[in-house]
Amino acid sequence: MDLGLTGRRAIVTGGSRGIGAATAAALRAEGAEVAVIGRDRAALDAVVAAHGVHPVVADLATADGVAVGIDACVAALGGVDILVNNAGASPGGTLDDITDDQWQETFDLKFMGYVRCTRAVLPTMRAQRYGRIVHVGGTGLLRAQPGYALASLAAGLVHFTRATAELVGPDGITVTMVHPGPTMTERLRGMLARGAERAGADVDDFAREVVGTSLPLGRVGSPEEVAAMITILCSEQAAWVTGGGLTIDGGAAQGVVGG
């Protein structure tokens, strides 16, 4: 299947590792030109060496950082057709645990970062009457849990996705969201390592036997599996998909209707 991505110009935020790096690699493999934004230059350089992307160092938690980062990407690519918003991660914790600073930091990067990056690419996408925007969330926002209070901010991105999709649909721009479940990123591996240490187990064994067995498909997912779905949503084959979300979690999410 030809995804129609050859020559398309894509920006991936949080693209230096995990799902972001895997998405950059998948888009490049389909022939897209890709710019990745991150805060860690060394990690970005590794993605450049592996996949030939354009690296941009920027802090997307600030309005100035977004402006500088997106402008640099557009200049490097000569325009923009695709935006994958992936930067930022929300720490776990209950309402009793999460501080005001953690609420604000998550809001600035994971919520306002997505809002500002989207707003920054819209003039170009509207002028060319074409665009693909994909937000990366997580299954934590699909079911309220006391131990993950900050997922409430990510849940707001579901509303933002739908509202923006309705706004820009007439301009030929689609806006979608993916909800990855447990995915073997560096962040998850670090969390599992702590649990494995307490249990006196190997990290991979712990992931397979403790986390994996709790999922219907019996295993943790890979960044490449999530990236493949994001890439399809960025493609010509998803031209009639907008406003909704795709859950990628090995069947873990409960409920009748997905995100």
Outline the low-pLDDT stretches: none
- Secondary-structure content class: alpha/beta
Oligomer: single chain
Basic shape: globular
Give me the CATH fold name.
Rossmann fold
Overall pLDDT score = 89
CATH class placement: Alpha Beta
Distance between the termini: 27 Å
Please report the total strand number as a whole number: 7
The CATH architecture can be named as 3-Layer(aba) Sandwich
| Helix fraction by DSSP (H/I, runs of at least 4) | 40-55%
Query: What is the count of DSSP helices, taking H or I runs of 4+ residues?
Result: 8
Strand order of the largest sheet: 3-2-1-4-5-6-7
CA-atom Rg in angstroms: 18 Å
- The CATH superfamily is identified as NAD(P)-binding Rossmann-like Domain
Could you characterize what this model shows?
The chain has 259 residues and is an alpha/beta fold. The protein has one domain (9-183, 221-248): 3-Layer(aba) Sandwich (Rossmann fold), CATH 3.40.50.720. The chain is 46% helix and 14% strand. The chain has eight helices and seven strands, in the order βαβαβαβαβαβαααβ. Strands 3-2-1-4-5-6-7 form a seven-stranded parallel sheet, with helices on both faces. β2, α2 and β3 form a beta-alpha-beta unit. The longest helix is centred in the middle third of the chain and has 29 residues, at 100-128. The two termini are 27 Å apart.
